[in-house]
């Protein structure tokens, strides 16, 4: 009887771990945003589109994700200011930068 309880507990833990896994990407995007991108995108410093501001983001989202990724990874200068390559986080992996783009886009839709 006691063993059975232990087994059930282990099974429950495995299930919990499995259900957490798919959320990992979203969490990374938020983490990257909070460590690098927020410096400009939280307040709009330097002309950056503001986090969660739909009017700021709508015309950018219209360009499509491939363009947003390209600009976030390689940097770009638009009418408002300059987005530095990888937001200045030069050690960030491509996937981390893209996850941060996904995170900002998701919060502005
Ligand atoms: C030093 C300030 C700064 C930081 C840090 C920064 N950005 Fe930006 N970002 C900008 C500015 C300014 C623009 C707008 C440029 C323009 O349109 O004139 C911009 C625009 C963008 C855009 C829209 C591109 C487009 O095509 O319209 C994306 C996507 C973006 N940033 C992603 C990121 C991500 C992801 C990070 C963090 C890894 C980040 N930014 C960090 C300043 C910054």
TrEMBL record:
<keyword id="KW-0813">Transport</keyword>
<dbReference type="GO" id="GO:0009055">
    <property type="term" value="F:electron transfer activity"/>
</dbReference>
<feature type="domain" description="Cytochrome c">
    <location>
        <begin position="24"/>
        <end position="108"/>
    </location>
</feature>
<dbReference type="InterPro" id="IPR009056">
    <property type="entry name" value="Cyt_c-like_dom"/>
</dbReference>
<dbReference type="GO" id="GO:0020037">
    <property type="term" value="F:heme binding"/>
</dbReference>
<keyword id="KW-0732">Signal</keyword>
<keyword id="KW-0249">Electron transport</keyword>
<dbReference type="InterPro" id="IPR002323">
    <property type="entry name" value="Cyt_CIE"/>
</dbReference>
<dbReference type="Pfam" id="PF13442">
    <property type="entry name" value="Cytochrome_CBB3"/>
</dbReference>
<keyword id="KW-0349">Heme</keyword>
<keyword id="KW-0408">Iron</keyword>
<feature type="signal peptide">
    <location>
        <begin position="1"/>
        <end position="26"/>
    </location>
</feature>
<protein>
    <submittedName>
        <fullName>Cytochrome c5 family protein</fullName>
    </submittedName>
</protein>
<dbReference type="GO" id="GO:0005506">
    <property type="term" value="F:iron ion binding"/>
</dbReference>
<keyword id="KW-0479">Metal-binding</keyword>
<dbReference type="InterPro" id="IPR036909">
    <property type="entry name" value="Cyt_c-like_dom_sf"/>
</dbReference>
């Amino acid at each position: 009887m006691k063993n059975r309880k232990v087994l059930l507990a282990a099974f429950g833990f495995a299930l919990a771990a499995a259900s957490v896994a798919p959320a990992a990407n979203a969490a990374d995007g938020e983490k990257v945003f909070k460590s690098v991108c927020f410096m400009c995108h939280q307040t709009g410093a330097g002309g950056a589109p503001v986090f969660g501001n739909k009017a700021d983001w709508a015309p950018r989202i219209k360009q499509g994700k491939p363009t947003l990724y390209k600009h976030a990874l390689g940097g770009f200068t638009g009418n408002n200011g300059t987005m530095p390559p990888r937001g200045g986080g030069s050690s960030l992996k491509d996937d981390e930068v893209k996850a941060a783009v996904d995170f900002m886009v998701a919060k502005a839709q």
